[in-house]
Known about the structure:
alpha+beta, 5 helices
Amino acid sequence: ANTLLQRHKTCLVTQPDPTHLTRHQYCSKSRGTNLAGKPVLTLFTKECCQLCDEALEDLGPERLDMVELREVDITLEENEHWFNKYRYEIPVFYLNKKFLCKNRMDLDLFDAEIKKLSQET
């Protein structure tokens, strides 16, 4: 619980605590193609989304290393469509542009979809 509280508090300060990971450390800001060949996990989020941080914490570094994580900030003007669709549902996850889950991370589903993708290649 302390870790989550620390993570949530970082939204309120300008300098985050360097001793814990934030979702931005996992996030690819690149909008280009995925050169690593990893599946793309898209997180529809907004600033200071504690549930989003908890979902990424649930995934953990091992699972996050299997994907290229991209964030979509639904509060940005260019993402109005996603805001209207998901404002009460975040976190929302897509895997390779296909809806995966919302409100929280479904780890069993994530693992099954990653396994399915690995068998396709």
